[in-house]
Fold each of these.
Amino acid sequence: MFICYIMSVKNQISGVVEMRKYLRQNKVMLLVPLLFLAVFTFGAGTYAAATEDPMQQLQKRVDEVLRILQSGELKRPENKEERKKLILNAVTDMFDFREMAKSSLAQSWNTLTPEEQDTFVGLFSRLIEQRYIGKIDSYTDQKVVYKKQLVKGDNAMIYTDVVDKDVEIPIIYRLQENKGKWLIYDVKIENVSLIVNYRRDFDSIIRKEQFAGLVEKITKQLEKPETSN
Amino acid sequence: MIRSFVILAGFIVLLLFMATQTWAGADADMAAGSEPAVSSPGTEPAGGNGAGHDPLQEDNWEDDNWEDEWEDADTIADPLEPINRFFFHFNDKLYYWVLKPVANVYSRIFTEDFQVVIRNFFDNLRSPARAINSLLQGNVGDSSKEMARFVLNSTVGIIGVGDFAGDVLGLHPANEDFGQTLAYYGAGGGFYINWPFLGPSNFRDSLGILGDSYVHPLILLNADREVIIGAWTFEKLNYTALTLVDYELFTQTALDPYTAVKDAYQQYRNGLIKNR
């Protein structure tokens, strides 16, 4: 322990010295980003006053889901249906399913009639539920660490880590603002984008069996019994 | 055997020496480059400045990401699809008929804490490969961190069962392998290969697995083939026990599980390669 302490102090000291050297050598270089930073914070300040921060919104909703999951009352067998409904409501409130369904179909989306589009959005959101509600039920005591957010106009990326069994799993959310509400339209888990993945999956089917085949496959998929844990 | 040990020891000393030179510099860079466009979250990341979270690097990487939102790399070539699908099916059955039932029993006997310890032990054995690959990709800082991890965790962390370096010193593993090194020097992935037992891979990463295996301590110590296969199986079983539902949930909610796994593999690898 003592050795570690010495090592960390030594590192900090040399870090400070290096930092000073760096500052001295790069005064002009530093001014430019500082200027940008000032402009950015000023601009963002006026914007953030109007609406809530996307990360705050996400965190609030995730906390709400965790509260439902941890509630001892709801864990009782007789409340099983109620619990599922509450989770589902809380989760679906976070996603922009229409946007997700559209992106997952790529160009094929535009070839559909409005009715077909609506049907597909419904099917797609149930497919997502099937994947994530199954996972959410296996929740035990994972911690969510909110690392940072990037906001660009009405788009935002939020970087989080889920700490599960001592391993950090990076999860990135992409959100879009819709009337003051930030909704998720893609989730990247360990670099694997949910939407890109579905896009490939759907594309391989559309190419062989057209849109009708895809609808049929999803319908069949949704009839499958839930995955048991 | 003794000679390879001496070479390894020399390498460790060299890297530890370089470590003292580079950590300080990396800290200064991080402090200077991380400010703009990042609003700090309420909670700090648990481990402090980890190897994988260099904000400077991540920011560049994000800028690319805003632009090519869905335009991912081309789909991976798959001339072996029929064979690959066969082995995908084979591995799937292996999972449901063998791995999962055994892992279930295993989980009932050994606690999760024990499983984490076993995972740490096997993970520690891959440290030398990660260190060498970080170095080959020109990242001396990560390489020395990884070597320090190996030395510390093998000793203070008791043959690697505890992650002393990560928990106490905040030295987190750099996820590098030879496949990524080849990609760093411009090698494309080549075609997709779904190996029996090993699972999804591609031509480049298969070479990578082969390359990395040469610096795995079990191989360096000239272990018997039975020991190597036994160790590998045990590692796989332990890993399955720790991640039991994940595979099922992913494959069962995909319409064409083979395509979904193939794409997930490609995205995952591309992410690792980008995030050097």
Amino acid sequence: MTRWLGQRPVIVSIALLLLTWALVARAGWIGKTLLASPEEVLGVLARAWHPADSGQAVYTHALHTIGRALAGWAIALVGGGILGLLLGFNPRAYRATEPLLEFARAVPPIMAFPLFLVAFDFGTAAFVWTIAVGCLPIMVLAVARGIQGLDRTRQDLLAVHDVSRPLRTVASIVEIMPSTFFGARLTLSISLIVAVVTEMVFSPRSGFAVGALAKDSQISFDTPTFFACIVVIGTYGYAMNAVMRRVEWRLSGEGRRAP
Amino acid sequence: MLIGMHAVSDGRVRDLSAQETALPLSLPKASVQALWAREVGFSYARGNTRVHVFRDVTLEIPRGKALGLFGPNGTGKTTLMRALSRLQPVDGEIGSPTRGEAARSSTIGYVPQGYARSFYPWASLETNILMHLPDPFGSAKRNRQAVRDAHDSLGLSLDLRLRPAQCSGGMIQQAALIRALARRPDVLIADEPFSALDFEVAARVREGFRRAVSDQGICAVLALHDLQDIVEVCDLVLAIPGRPYTTNPQLEGHFRAHLFENRSRVLHGSPAAASSGVRTDSPFVAALSKALAGEHGE
């Protein structure tokens, strides 16, 4: 058992966190309005599975939030990927635009949210485009810098061996996968942060938004629901990151066992 | 000038003599049948001064022959090889052989010094090799056969289904040699191509490599640091004593690079057939050492 746990340190750290959380909540060192106990949070999450509660379930709110985050992230992924490739293969254009991209990256996307709200008539598109704009510069820089940093030896070899341009491009795109994946994982987290923050600023028309639910539950001192929102969103972020790491690991060739 | 060399193996004495040869071997008229460089030079700017790496280097490597570049680190061997493979723009002229009138340019096979980095980790060794063939989208059967032929010609038993992460440095170096030979090159440029191979594999690879160069009429240029490699593989050796170097005896202020013909190959065919250690106190080594010290031939 000890050995099994030793090989899975994450289980130990989660167990320790839950234990500390439960002890602190039970001891009453922090008021109930600030800290819900794990049992209360689990109660909210369990209740949310019940059909009668499905309309207002934390999961339903989270799914809408995640949907918007993924839509904005996908736009940034495709747009940033294409722009990054174009700039990466054109060093002069890259040098000309890099300061602008760094500037755009430094501006918190939430600052553009009021403009998008007006531009898109307070609709879902405002949320999606705020997320996309927040993620886009990072994706562009990740891809362009990957292209700029292509291995010199491989590039020389492709040139000497007169490998065709389409094949060289494909090989280069695959070669920059680590930096592309890094950009994708980073922007995935950012997309979720921006999605929740925008919802906390302005509740979408549908009413389903985990950010808005978290804010409302905080205001109404419904601390267990507030913590349930954190747990659901955090779990989603962790799971997506793990999936992407797994895909990256497989693609990098490290995941292939000897035949 | 004849320089004798004797290596003892199993009680037998073999003549591994080398002879310094005239430069150039011939003027680059027969360019279709040789890789040649005429008055080639490379320099770079450092502040307001011009730093010369080599200057007025004239060489000719006929088809089926291998030239070894032998000298200390940092003398510009890799730069010369990059120039010969058209990666490094240089002063002077470089010509390379082509297969028949129809071919627009020569096919080059290149084994870089950083061979391990040259493989993509996401693909098998075979896929890595296939994408470097002259017609990678052509007949898959023919391309796989070309890879298999190159593998067998080097006397290897390498599992090409492995990915680079599953291979040792020596295995990847074998794959790099296969990749270069599978292209059926007119010119083969290799930067320390046997450096990571174990003793047994190195002996087989040297012999297979040597045979491939002769049989396929390849013009080969290799940067080597091991005398055994030089003696067993190279027909010609350019001993580079330092930097900046030249092959022009009239050019002053430069180290004189001497070209030797490895006569042991002429006398005995394939010395690799009886692989042996190279004595460090032999006359050949002494002559090369002299050449590298800039004391030879003047």
